[in-house]
Design a protein that fits this description.
By secondary structure, the chain is α+β, with helices and mostly antiparallel strands. It has one domain: NE0471-like N-terminal domain (NE0471 N-terminal domain-like, 2-Layer Sandwich). It contains four helices and six strands, in the order βββαααβββα.
Length: 81
C-alpha cells in the first residue's frame, strides 16, 4: 500500500490550490463549490479569501486553523471534494 502525502500546496487564486503529492501527481483543486454549499458556519467563514489563504501543510496534510477545516488526502489527490 502506498501512503500519499502532500509535498506542496500553492494558493493560485479565488478558492483554488495547486497540490503536489508525494507520488508526483500535481492537481489543482477548486474549493469554491464546497465552501459555497457548506452549511456549517465554521466552514463558511473560509469564504473570506484572507482566511482561506492561511492554510498550512502539516505532516503531509493540508489544514486550516489547527484542523478546523481539513480534507482526506486521497480525495484531494483525486480532485473530489
Amino acid at each position: 500500500m502506498i501512503v500519499i502525502s502532500i509535498n506542496k500546496a500553492d494558493y493560485i487564486g479565488d478558492y483554488k490550490i495547486n497540490f503536489t503529492f508525494s507520488d508526483g501527481v500535481e492537481r489543482m483543486v477548486d474549493f469554491s463549490n464546497f465552501l459555497n454549499n457548506a452549511k456549517n458556519p465554521m466552514t463558511k467563514k473560509y469564504l473570506d479569501k484572507q482566511l482561506f489563504k492561511k492554510f498550512s501543510v502539516n505532516y503531509g496534510d493540508i489544514i486550516w486553523n489547527d484542523y478546523e477545516m481539513c480534507f482526506p488526502i486521497w480525495d484531494l489527490h483525486e480532485g473530489n471534494i
